[in-house]
From TrEMBL:
Region spans: Disordered: 1-36
Signal peptide: none
Cellular component aspect of the GO annotation: Golgi apparatus
Molecular-function annotations in GO: glycosyltransferase activity
Record-annotated membrane-spanning stretches: 45-68
Top-level taxon of origin: Eukaryota
Keyword Repressor attributed: no
Residue ranges, compositional bias (Low complexity): 1-11
PANTHER family: GLYCOSYLTRANSFERASE 8 DOMAIN-CONTAINING PROTEIN, LIPOPOLYSACCHARIDE 1,3-GALACTOSYLTRANSFERASE
The protein's annotated pathway: Glycan metabolism; pectin biosynthesis
Name recorded for this polypeptide: Hexosyltransferase
Length: 394
């Protein structure tokens, strides 16, 4: 019994011998168990600065944009806005977006004029240009046809064939009115009207500051990006030379000598004209309208009157040739226009001219009934897009 009592007594004594918990230890352990220390209280001045910065960012959202990045530009360059560069419908176009009035908009503007509408030729021109282009999504076509925005059927037909292309249809009325007012009773060869139109178009469509003019009967196998990038220096026009047609083939040499010595017009050369000079090919032109001489139309009309061109009915108009004499940049020979004679020549040439298939225009020139070409040269048909016969008619 005594041993048992002593054992329990010693156990109780041992339990009572354990020291009570220290107050400092308890406080220390309590601070460790806290998850997050209380946040410091910021100074009032920093609160006002932060709130003011947020308000500043909010008001920035209401300011108008000053620059943009064109989604189709591979270089993603910043381009400044101005009042005339906004997207919008043109006054005579069917497209929902107009060309921007900036020479650095990243687009390659291609213009073509057609008196007698044959959509097959425009389709061949668009398809050959896009197929050869390095950046087809940057090519913007401007087709001038007789009815313009009234001919919505033609526009939709072309958009069906080229759904992802940049395409606008323009009317010819305003350009014709300017030329008609300028000549005001003067007579000149009818073929010269389409030759003058490329130089009048920028005065009507001022968004076209630098563009490539291409005749509708052209197969464009060269890259238009390379052509639009040509530096024109002080010239407003760039054209390839046609050395198969010399100057003396259009103008009598003796008559030209007399005019050169007696006339004192600014567009008449101060030095004698080179009789064997090559003439510019007007099928493909690079035009910078910001450098275009304002008296070009006057020079053309003056030469037409002096040379009595109302008696001429066909061929390249000599008034255009003389108005451009020594006033255009001669493009490299690679941009020379070559007639389409064989498939091998087409494969080795940048610019090919083919014979326009025979067509019968309507009374108002707004359409054409295609006929079988008499010369049998149908190379151009290979460049028609699929489904062209069903959509455009064969």
């Amino acid at each position: 019994m005594s041993s048992s009592y002593q054992s329990s007594r010693s156990s109780a004594t041992h339990r009572r011998a354990a020291p009570p918990p220290n107050a400092n230890n308890a406080a220390s352990s309590g601070s460790v168990r806290q998850d997050v220390d209380p946040a410091p209280t910021p100074r009032p001045v920093f609160r006002f600065l932060g709130f003011g910065f947020i308000i500043f960012l909010v008001f920035l959202q209401f300011l108008p944009a000053t620059h943009f990045r064109h989604p189709s530009d591979p270089l993603r360059r910043w381009t400044p806005f101005d009042d005339s560069t906004a997207f919008g419908a043109t006054s005579d176009g069917n497209s929902s977006s107009a060309a921007k009035n900036s020479r650095e908009d990243g687009m390659v503007h291609v213009v073509s004029w057609m008196d007698c509408l044959d959509l097959r030729l425009l389709a061949v021109l668009a398809n050959s240009t896009l197929s050869s282009s390095r950046y087809p999504h940057l090519v913007f076509f401007h087709f001038f046809i007789p009815k313009g925005n009234e001919d919505k059927v033609s526009f939709f037909k072309l958009k069906v064939l080229f759904p992802h292309s940049n395409l606008e249809i323009h009317g010819q009325q305003e350009v014709r009115e300017i030329i008609t007012t300028a000549i005001s009773g003067a007579q000149f060869a009818g073929s010269s009207f389409v030759e003058v139109a490329p130089f009048i178009i920028p005065s009507v469509h001022q968004s076209l500051t630098k563009f490539i003019y291409i005749s509708p009967n052209i197969l464009m196998k060269g890259k238009v990006e390379d052509l639009i990038g040509t530096a024109l220096s002080n010239y407003a026009i760039g054209a390839a030379e046609d050395c198969s047609r010399k100057l003396d083939m259009f103008v009598n040499s003796n008559v030209l000598d007399v005019i050169q010595r007696s006339a004192s017009k600014p567009w008449v050369s101060e030095t004698p004209y080179a009789k064997n000079a090559c003439t510019p090919d007007l099928s493909v032109l690079l035009i910078d309208s910001t450098k275009l001489d304002g008296d070009f139309v006057d020079a053309f009309l003056w030469w037409s009157k002096v040379l009595n061109l109302n008696e001429r009915s066909s061929g390249k108009n000599s008034a255009i040739v003389l108005a451009l004499y020594n006033k255009y940049l001669k493009l490299s020979n690679s941009w020379s226009v070559t007639p389409a004679t064989s498939s091998e020549m087409i494969n080795n040439t940048r610019v090919i001219r083919y014979d326009i298939p025979n067509s019968v225009c309507s009374q108002f020139g707004s359409g054409a009934t295609p006929q079988v070409s008499g010369n049998g040269n149908n190379i151009w048909k290979h460049y028609l897009p699929p489904m062209s016969d069903q959509i455009l008619g064969s």
